[in-house]
Design a protein that fits this description.
By secondary structure, the chain is of the alpha+beta class. The chain folds into three domains: about 90 residues, Rossmann fold (3-Layer(aba) Sandwich); about 45 residues, no CATH class; about 120 residues, D-amino Acid Aminotransferase, Chain A, domain 1 (2-Layer Sandwich), CATH 3.30.470.20. Helices cover about 25% and strands about 25% of the residues. The protein has nine helices and 18 strands. The strands form five sheets. A five-stranded parallel sheet has the order 3-2-1-4-5, with helices on both faces. Strand 17 and strand 18 form a beta hairpin. Helix 4 crosses helix 5.
């Protein structure tokens, strides 16, 4: 069975169990002993923080110990580091190259990239740039960040000046989109060839994460997702967020090169992204099946838990894992 190492596993029980169902042996790591996903994996280990100089060495030792063939970074924290150090790890790291990650991590750099490549993106300025008439309302957004944190909506110049002074993050100013918001879950091979793109509605979100949504077979969104993924050079998964404006444009507001928070929805719709990832790790070249998924699949999320007990100084699950 192929062995998959998940870094910064956190709460992503859904991702680990999906790879288990796809036939993988799973190894989860995190620096927090109470990260729930650790206890959903076949093996788990505590590791230093991403900023620790031994982090990659520890991962390398785990790759050798468990004969890992695929590394799946679950959160954004270690993307750039692992992309730079992938040659040391002797396993397929499911990430694009460092330049792509730098673009995705810096939302202003992403905006400039999209403008350069003719991809719709909302008008965006650095804090020192806005002068004269702006298309209020506008958003004050962090250039780097996740979970919709430190985002403020300004209705006029007075509010804009206040929020720019109030925020603690290096920010940018962006025109607020008024259309319907969508996410597109894409998956690309090691040559950045898009294998599938699955759009979904954003019925309800909390903390920047979709908790209710539905897959839709919208040809414009599917092609939009494919084009963006291949232009960026995505390898593995990414979640693309965009709006459909009244003029028919599809401005992109964010691209995250990882499995999205709503991962269970495209999985239930037949994405087979875990199986595709395992095929890539085995050196295969899967056929593209862009647009091949079930439409009208609806997800509504709920809280779950893993209950642990202290077994001689080691935490072990008590009873069943979160219902699947």
């Amino acid at each position: 069975m192929p062995v998959v190492l998940f870094t910064c596993a956190g709460q992503r029980v859904d991702i680990i169990t999906a790879f288990s169902r796809a036939g993988a042996t799973t190894v989860a790591v995190d620096l927090n002993a109470l990260a729930p996903a650790l206890y959903a994996a076949d093996h788990h280990s505590l590791v230093p923080g991403v900023d620790d100089e031994t982090y990659v060495d520890v991962l390398q030792a785990l790759v050798e110990q468990h004969d890992v063939s695929l590394i799946v970074p679950v959160a954004d924290s270690d993307h750039l580091l692992l992309a730079r150090e992938r040659a040391r790890l002797d396993a397929l790291v499911l990430l694009p190259g460092p330049e792509t990650i730098r673009v995705c991590e810096d939302k202003y750099a992403a905006h400039e990239f999209f403008v350069e490549h003719g991809i719709d993106t909302p008008a965006t300025w650095l804090p020192e740039e806005p002068a004269g008439e702006l298309p209020f309302p506008v958003l004050v957004k962090p250039r780097r960040g996740f979970g919709s944190r430190h985002i403020y909506r300004a209705a006029d110049r007075r509010e804009l000046d206040f929020f720019l002074g109030y925020t603690s993050e290096a920010s940018m100013v962006q025109r607020a989109c008024h259309g319907e918001e969508f996410s597109i879950d894409v998956f690309c091979d090691v040559d950045a060839r898009c294998l599938n793109a699955i759009p979904r509605t954003m019925i309800e979100s909390k903390g920047g994460e979709s908790i209710k949504g539905m897959t839709i077979k919208d040809s414009d969104l599917i092609e939009h997702g494919r084009r963006i993924a291949e232009t960026l050079g995505i390898v593995g998964p990414a979640t693309i967020q965009c709006f459909r404006e009244q003029d028919g444009s599809l401005p992109v507001t964010d691209v995250n090169p990882r499995f999205g928070g709503a991962f269970p929805l495209p999985t239930a719709a037949g994405s087979r992204y875990p199986e595709l990832a395992l095929a890539l790790a085995a050196g295969e070249r899967p056929e593209a099946a862009v647009g091949d998924f079930r439409e009208g699949v609806v997800m509504t999320r709920y809280f779950g838990q893993i209950v642990l007990q202290d077994a001689g100084g080691v935490l072990e699950p008590l009873g069943e894992l979160t219902p699947d």
